[in-house]
Amino acid sequence: MKSEEMDNGGSKLQLDRRELMKLGAGAAGLAALASGKAASGQASGVPSTPANPPAPGSMRKPGEIAPFTALGYKNNFNRLGKNGPMDDTTAKIVKYVYNFKPSDVTPAAKKQYDRLMIDSLASIVGGFEEEGPRASAELARMCPAGPEKCTVLGYNLTTTPEMATFANGCLIREVDWNDTEFQVHYSTVIPAALAMGEALHKSGADVMAAIMIAYELQAVPAGGESVVAAMAAGKLMGLDEDRLANALTLALTPHIALNKGVGAMSMWKGMRSAESAKCGVWAALMARAGVTGPPQPFEGRGGYWASLRSTDAGPSGFARGIDANGMGRKFNLPVTEGENVLVHTWYKRRPAEASSQGILYLMPEIRTWLGGTENVAAIHIDISYSNWEEICDAPKWDPQNRQTADHSLPFITAQALIAGDIFLDSYREDKFLNPVAQDLLAKTTISPVNGWVGNGPARIEITKKNGEKKFWDTYEGRRVVGNEDYPPLTTAEQKEKLDRACAFMKVNPAQRDQAYKIWGDTSSLKDFADAMKVVAKFGQPKPFVG
Question: Could you give the C-alpha distances from 58 to 53, 54, 55, 62, 83, in angstroms and in order?
Answer without folding.
Answer: 10, 6, 6, 12, 39
